Amino acid sequence: MVFLTVLPIVGIGGLGKTTLAQTVFDDEEITKHFETKIWVCVSNEFDIKLVMKVILEEKAEARSEELQKKVREKLSGKRYLIILDDVWNENVEAWNQLRSILDCGSNGAFVLTTTRKRNVAEIMGTIQHFELSSLSQDDCWLLFEECAKPKLPNFINIGKEISRKCMGVPLVTNVLGSQLRFNCDEKEWCRIRDSEIWEISQNENLILSILRLSYYDLSYHLRRCFVFCAIFPKDAEIEKVRLIQLWMAHGLIPIVKNQEVEDIGNTIWNELCRRSFFQDDKFDQSGNEICKMHDLMHDLSKSVMKDECYTLDVNNSSDGLKRDIRHLTVRVNEFVKTSVLSLKKIGGLQSLMCNGIDVEGNVTMKICLSVLKELPVLRVLELRCIEVNEDHHLTFQILFNIIFRKHHISRSYMGHLKHLRYLDISYNYLIILPDSICDLLNLQTLKLNGCFMLESLPRNTKDLISLRHLYLEDCFGLKYMPRGTRQLKHLKTLSLFVIGNKKRDCQLDELKELDIGGSLELKNLGRVSDASMERGISMAKKTSINELELEWRSDDEDESKSTRDEKIGEALEVSTVGLKKLKMIGYKGVNLPKWVNNVNTIASSSVDNEMIVLFPLLEELYIVRMKNLRELVSPSCWSIGAFPNLCMLLISDCTKLGALPPHLKSLKYVNVAGKCSDEFVRG
């Protein structure tokens, strides 16, 4: 008989239960031992259906019976490890139900769970639970010393007294040490040491009180930005760029002369990470910087925000909706009329985020059609379609046709959203966006990622005078850009620019004066007009672009275009110094543009402290359907060094391409597809 082993880790908040579990989860020997590893954040609500969906990595809705069947198929006969993090459930029947679903693995299948409650450990554990002890006074001082870095004897003595009061809780020690690290005022150190909060009983109330003390040590704008994060669910991965744009939308970032608001937001993010209000700061697989908040930090932000944040889901009914709510997340499978009526009572709603909506699309349909016009101060609206069900997408198309149809209805809906600054309608079956969306004169961020049927943007897009970020990733159907893009003076992000074939369409020279950065795809470069080149299409000043895709054409086999492609390529004058990813597709030229061979001076550990290289930061290079190309870089440039950080190279259908530059020391992954020359294959 095979029994599932369950080991609970028990301890008060802030001791490092999740950190310990994460260390186990990431261990190389553990990875080799188990066939499958799965991490599930359970948190306050023990929702078996959600746990199963995380195990299956599914977002689409499904019946519980169907999910159970899929879970058993995935885990059956396997030696797996599942981490159930932050469990609060004391319902024995609920746990028995989940265990019966999971109890299908082979000998050695293992569940590791973390909890603050010993009663939960006794319910779940099949072996003796592991109780995580607090740090010793010596270890607590070592951690505090590492965070605070006191130098003078007085500060060291005061620091030791503070560390002794930290109850051996790493989170408290870390936060207080980080708070005092750059504080050279001895009185402030004494104030922390002598605070009345230490008189509170030795429990988690004390920990929250200590964290609150550090919270009030933050500047006003840091406090506002931190507590806003209560809108995210516990253990959520928070994406930096998105968070900064949400802060911007709500006016939480102070204005500083001669500084971009995004840069100030980045400074705030870094400061909150430094002070341990954010943790696990890292980059995800897509290259986005993310972080998490510790459960206690989340509790702190919620306690400050009080009733201003609310999540409407299967565990929280519309009865909890109050007039004080300012930020609402809708995550439900059904949304009845009474809920819509309740929403209408929230006159001051500023954020409405509808993610993970139901398959039928009823939630968003009812909210939008009945509520949007009742929310005049709305600043953030997310209507992301993240399901894969075709009927769902069709429902969204009908929805947006109703909301944005070019008649009086569209004006009445959009006209009421004068304060909207952030609009995300990604992953929807949209074909067009109407001109009425251009009434949103305060709009800063517009996200249309994954709207692959979208054919055009409104002709009056130029009227969005506050627009700073326009996301069009995977908008494969977009045929052209509307004229007047140059008038979007504040634009910082433009992920896709499509050159049309009509005179009335926007040409590439309109980007010349825009200070855009990040990721940019230029599509249909073969359509750049002579007049546009005369006006100038140089990208030499766009040093903030780190990912660039240049696509000339995909189906035009006219070899006479070779010289013209070279002429357009030369005129681009791309700055390569900051590029980390470069794609070139469909270029018919024999020689690459001269800017490819432009050398860059970068810092070095050599005697003269600098060296000259080609593409100093480039990590990924894609060369596709460039059938006339003979060499990537001139052999005369090989001696000075090229691609020192290139780790991924993809070459496809480059039939005349010769050998690669030598000494690509960082190269780890090479993919050669389609027809390539014998010289290249031998090289």
Describe the structure.
This protein has 683 residues and is of the alpha/beta class. The chain has 5 domains: 5-131, P-loop containing nucleotide triphosphate hydrolases (Rossmann fold, 3-Layer(aba) Sandwich); 137-217; 220-305, Winged helix-like DNA-binding domain superfamily/Winged helix DNA-binding domain (Arc Repressor Mutant, subunit A, Orthogonal Bundle); 314-478, Leucine-rich repeat, LRR (right-handed beta-alpha superhelix) (Alpha-Beta Horseshoe), CATH 3.80.10; 489-683, Leucine-rich repeat, LRR (right-handed beta-alpha superhelix) (Alpha-Beta Horseshoe), CATH 3.80.10. 32% of the residues lie in helices and 17% in strands. The strands form 5 sheets. Strands 9-10-11-12-13-14-15-16 form an 8-stranded parallel sheet, covered by helices on one side. A 7-stranded parallel sheet has the order 17-18-19-20-23-24-25. The chain has a 5-stranded parallel sheet with strand order 2-3-4-1-5, sandwiched between helices. Helix 7 (137-148) packs across helix 8 (153-164), helix 7 packs parallel to helix 9 (170-180) and helix 11 packs across helix 15. Mean pLDDT is 85; it is low at 334-338, 357-366, 387-399, 401-412 and 601-609.
